Amino acid sequence: EGKGKKRNPLHDFKKTGELMLIKVNKTLEVKTKLLNTTEQCAKRCSRNKGLSFTCKAFAYDRVTKRCHWLSFNSLTNGVRKKQDHAFDLYEKKDYVRNCIIGKGADYKGTISVTKSGIQCQAWNSMIPHEH
């Protein structure tokens, strides 16, 4: 079952059409390269191949066939959204998801309070509970 079938790397990304992210914070990183398909961009972002940062999203310019890998996403401080008909934005679901699946071991989202509003324990703290 599933033999010979390759997993589509775009499955891990949330697509927003005709949107580009503009970095206001100059410390945020971007790398670009000509690539023929969004699948190639996604694969490289997922593996962080050839990138000096953790890829959280990429924008694909359909006109120039250029991939823009981003060290940030739409939830990052110092970033603004810009409507742009040439681009499609793909954000890693792990970084924009606001739900926790299972025990949340792979959660990278922004929620830091419980459903009842209690502040979550920091990962580097063993108080009030041990991990």
UniProtKB/TrEMBL annotation:
<dbReference type="InterPro" id="IPR050759">
    <property type="entry name" value="Serine_protease_kringle"/>
</dbReference>
<dbReference type="InterPro" id="IPR000001">
    <property type="entry name" value="Kringle"/>
</dbReference>
<keyword id="KW-0420">Kringle</keyword>
<dbReference type="GO" id="GO:0005615">
    <property type="term" value="C:extracellular space"/>
</dbReference>
<dbReference type="Pfam" id="PF00051">
    <property type="entry name" value="Kringle"/>
</dbReference>
<dbReference type="GO" id="GO:0004175">
    <property type="term" value="F:endopeptidase activity"/>
</dbReference>
<dbReference type="InterPro" id="IPR038178">
    <property type="entry name" value="Kringle_sf"/>
</dbReference>
<protein>
    <submittedName>
        <fullName>HGF factor</fullName>
    </submittedName>
</protein>
<dbReference type="GO" id="GO:0005102">
    <property type="term" value="F:signaling receptor binding"/>
</dbReference>
<dbReference type="InterPro" id="IPR013806">
    <property type="entry name" value="Kringle-like"/>
</dbReference>
<feature type="domain" description="Kringle">
    <location>
        <begin position="98"/>
        <end position="131"/>
    </location>
</feature>
<dbReference type="InterPro" id="IPR003609">
    <property type="entry name" value="Pan_app"/>
</dbReference>
<feature type="domain" description="Apple">
    <location>
        <begin position="5"/>
        <end position="94"/>
    </location>
</feature>
<dbReference type="Pfam" id="PF00024">
    <property type="entry name" value="PAN_1"/>
</dbReference>
<keyword id="KW-1015">Disulfide bond</keyword>
